[in-house]
UniProtKB/TrEMBL annotation:
The gene is LOC107577393. One of its GO terms (biological process) is uroporphyrinogen III biosynthetic process. It comes from Sinocyclocheilus grahami. One of its GO terms (cellular component) is cytosol. This is Uroporphyrinogen-III synthase-like. GO terms for molecular function: uroporphyrinogen-III synthase activity. Coiled coil: none annotated. SUPFAM superfamilies: HemD-like.
Amino acid sequence: MKVLLLKEPRDSGDEADPYMKELASCGHTAALIPALSFRSVSLNELSERLFEPERFGGLIFSSPRAVEAVKSCLDSQRHRHSESGSADAHSLCSGFCFVVDE
């Protein structure tokens, strides 16, 4: 049976997508079609708040995209500090950090 798999492909290098692998093991042919697109909408506000950790008691990552957004802010901050020659002195996890997954 031919199956349409509507999801973002996994970024796991050479390893096959687990859904594609499972469907193939059952004799199905799957076509993977990325159906959604995600973009961060408030990176400036997130960045401002990340670098004021004393204002918050913790940080909760509720999805992989939340982690990607924080990483983007940290990469941007690191880039700015390397250009200016100043040290990166933030203490992001001075409180609690939690990761929530299904």
